[in-house]
Amino acid sequence: MRVTVDRDRCSGHVRCAALAPQVYRLDEEGYAAAGAHPVPPGQERPAERGALACPEGAISVSR
Ligand code: F3S
Question: Domain count of the chain?
Answer without folding.
Answer: 1
